Amino acid sequence: MRKLExxxxxxxxxxxxxxxxxxxxxxxVAFAGVLAVGLGTAGLVYASAQSTSAKASxxxxxxxxxxxxxxxxxxxxxxxxxxxxxxxxLADGTPAWCLGLGVPLPNNSTKAQLDxxxxxxxxxxxxQIAVLNNVDYLAxxxxxxLAYAQAQHATYLLLDEAGISENQTKDLVxxxxxxxxxxxxxxxxxxDLINQAKKxxxxxxxxxxxxxxxQGVEKKLTDSKGVMANFPNFKSNIDGVTASVSGNDVKLxxxxxxxxxxxxxxxxxxxxxxxxxxLPYYVYSTDGDSTGxxxxxxxxxxDPSQAMGALNINIIGLGEADLLKHDADTNSTKxxxxxxxxxxxxxxxxKAGTNTLVKYSDGQKGYPISVISGTKTNxxxxxxxMTDLKAGVAVKNLDNSKExxxxxxxxxxxxxxxxxxxxxxxxxxxxxxSKTNNYVDSAIATDKPLDYSFGFIKAQDVNGSHTGLNGRxxxxxxxxxxxxxxxxxxxxxxxxxxxxxxxxxxxFTKIPFGDGLLEELPQEGDTLQLINPISIVTTTNKDxxxxxTGYTVTFTDTVTKQVITTLDITTAKxxxxxxxxxxxxxxxxxxxxxxxxxxxKTKAHTKDGDQI
Length: 612
Known about the structure:
The protein is mainly beta. The chain contains five helices and 39 strands. It comes from Lactococcus lactis.
């Protein structure tokens, strides 16, 4: 593949120095046959719109032959001298055309040598040679005597135009002894051949231009010159970029595997079907004369002259990063416990592996990074507040060749703050949004609802001393809109870390963030006075900008209004940690109910009701 690509790139070179240290070495090398090679996405595609297959290489030593008394027509030079023009052929029958009007051939089977030092050849530019070759190629392809004569006259016209003719053509005539009898057909046909030959050298209108190509979006280019049909062969030099040609339209498409950026000669197209590094013409000097002045030089053609064009491509790759927020317990936007709310979390988009936030100005030229959903909290860097759980937060027009990370900057109320980064990476598995031309990376972040735990010893007052009391049941009931079911816990004996057994231990664990009421439940035949209900109230603390700074939880006796304990929890405490606190409320004591001894005073009455 590398060898073939090198040959294709060599097509555009104008000089080489490896053959007799002379620039025209390439003009005498050709490859027989047509290469049919499949090289995948960045490979070659060959079409058969033209008959461009190369023939077997012509000989290096041959003869130039012509038949006596069979002129096609007469060429008239600047002096008025008429020169008979028979059809010339090499020894193998290949047609050949004179390059010097009035320069003789010693005989009708003159020795000819392939000659890179030929004076006429080296006086011409590559473009002039290419047009000459095309004229003779078109005539050879036609195969008629008229086409041969038209090409011969056109050759003289082109050499005159180049200013290197030994003699110049002024006119042509046909006679009774010529094989052709319509001079005007030769003249007009010659001019037509020149026009066609030059047309074959025209490159499509978009040649050399730079085309912007967005990954995933097909782009059509139309050749306004109408010459694209002359270029059935094309090669993409970029992996992930495909090209197809239909008439004068070229369709390009880049997938997400293609690299982003500007690529010169990303697409090359050329007219000939062979992968030859040479122009397909052969110039022969005859009778040992390299000057072409003493003995006629001739040109033979195999294929059209190579014409190659190219497109530069600027590939744009766009990426959309979407993020949704879920409750870790429900794996959805619904919350089933507590008083927290998933809305209003704040997220930043970072350059992967760094603490550098992506800037809106980091977008590709003409495609600024912009917000799809979420509310900006910063106008320079991507920091978004999630106000709509269904839409989440999202930005588009990221450079999809780079990697990013979502990071939580502020947790929603009642949830822990996670420092875990969520990776954003674009690849072929991502959905392509044809409306925005972005590949979409979607992710879901989960936060845990906050909770807390508290405990105490349930005791009874026995003659002034407190004794742990097992078997008493307490109920926690969510209040003030806090979600969840009531929780009941019964006091019992527990063993501490020192192996000591404690009676009356009550532990409430994983109580959801929010408000609640703690009550002791009465028992049948109860002889104890129940503790007063205790309210638990959670307050969210915010700064002047409305950002959550922490929480305050207060336990209060609802009867006496005495505050049992107040706990302040900072956001740092609930970073990567959903437990706000675990507090020991101490000992809650039940006192025995003192029985009331009734005092009964009676008076006797007589049978008839009189008091005695």
